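Anyone else keep sequences and structure tokens together like this?

Example one:
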Amino acid sequence: MSHHTVLRAHAPAAVPGRTHTSAPTALRTTPRAAVVDDIAEVVRLRSLSFEGTGAHRGGNPSADGGWRDVLAAALHGQIASDTAQVLVVDGGSGLAAFGIGSIEQRLPGPYLATGRVGLVIGIATDPVYRWHGLGLAILRDLLAWFRERGADRVDPLASVEGEPLRRELGFADYCRHAPDWCP
């Protein structure tokens, strides 16, 4: 399942509108399953994924940051769950990246034979380590995990920045029959 790759620092290919940084030399890009001791770092990375995006994701944003405590409590349960996978990549001091996926059981039908749908809930990379393949390594391992659990489909719940990753791995747009609703 894991792709054992070592990334050597080099000048990454230019991507218009992106500022590239050099990752520390010999950064290991192999994702591993998160443990309880990783929760504070996963919360930090998840928080970074919302900073500066200006993206409205529906609902009303939490003004007090209390969602971080709720996230930490939820991660305790997700790390031990059979229906969720939290993957991390270690950095020099702390985590370089994380990703989380879950399996949702829906009603089976002609396009969902088992009713099992994989959800890529999020992938976030510390700015120091961005554009060095960590998100791709995590997404590949999540896709393998979904396949092992018999998911009929995987829905990527991700940012606009993640679109090139999704396209590279074969994700296609499909028509949704109903818009999202936020109470």
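And example two:
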Amino acid sequence: MEKTLSPPPAAPNEAPADKATPEGATRDATADGHATSDGHATGDGHATGDTTGDGKATGDAVSGGYATGDKTTGAVPFFTQAAEFAELWPEIRANCAEVLDRGKFSHGAMVARLEEALARWTGAEHVVAVNSGTDALVLLLRAAGLRPGDEVIVPAYTFIATASSVVLAGGTPVFADIEEHGYGLDPRSVEAVVTPRSRMVMPAHLFDRLADLRGLHEVAGRHGLLVLEDSAEAIGMRLHGVHAGLLSTGGVLSFFPAKTLGAIGDAGALITGDDAIAETARALRHHGRGGRTLDNFPAIANATVLPGCNSKMDDLQAAVLLAKLTRLDAAIARRAELSARYDERLRAVRGVRAVPGAVPPHPGGNRVCYVHQIEADDRDALAAHLTAHGIGTEIYYPVPLHLQPCFAHLGHRPGDFPRAEAACASALALPLHPGLTDADVDRVCDRIAAFYTGRAAR
């Protein structure tokens, strides 16, 4: 019997998690290191544009609120899924009703369908759906053979999970700096930190392009290192037609709500062409049980072949993702249009040091605009100015990983990775999602230009 599901007023408004702000910065942060765009921490550590409980954007981030934008006040939330949900609701409703009718809410048929659909879309031989991008990283590292004490070289500038996953998998993160032009892991910096304990290199593909995989593979080859990809942000990014995460031993995808393909909660996947890694990861996600467990409830009695965890994807998340996957190409194209409009408007604004389109992708690579990030003079004051006018922003990332308190035992100091530290001091992400209008982009750009014009006049 088909369930009747009424559409919600809007999709939940969530923005990308971030890390703690540096000492003396103007933003407040939650205990787990998320920084909001208006300087106040929400209850769950997520920050977006400013939303009220009635779904209108106003200037404050409210835990659990909905963001739809408010054209009367000129507010522009950092992120919202409202427009996508309005367009896709018939498909989402049908998929969710199917899950409810079947009564299998985790690790079931809808998850199996999603794995198959993602394999077709990315070209992956194996897709292993799990409950978050972070878990996908941990399982990838374990399945690839990381041993206690092994070192994994990661960028100092990336989301915390790139490094914390190494710790959770039993290894030791070793930091290296990012490229001079761009945010990818710098192969020369990697080579400088290789030791006899180095086992793997794990670059992160950030914001709109791939890291320099050709250069990183050359370094890894010289030192006998395995390359894994933190491709959590990189759905749709390809090098010579090969999807991110499949250019090395394996990679991951994150479906956090604000991602290019986002769920309505946490979800993720491991992707690889390696049969053994896929088999191990499938066991690890379901408490280490061997054999086929996906959509196979009797397999709960299967033998436990290795110590695993509970990282199964929920079928309702898969139901939403399957519906959104049908529009992913269009969503990527719209993000590219919006990013190009930002670049055109901001390129000549004095005070905006860099726009994403100014740096081309590495040869053979494409751009997929997950985040539109500029580098700006007096970044914190600019962010406060935008917030005061109802425009949401995010900082990726306020503190480089080598200076995070959880890695203090590694003995790093300010100045160790200057390019990562410089990015943390000036980078600011602007609203970017398929529901954004050209007028929204113009409103953001006008406010940025007004901020720097006003400063010059003083």
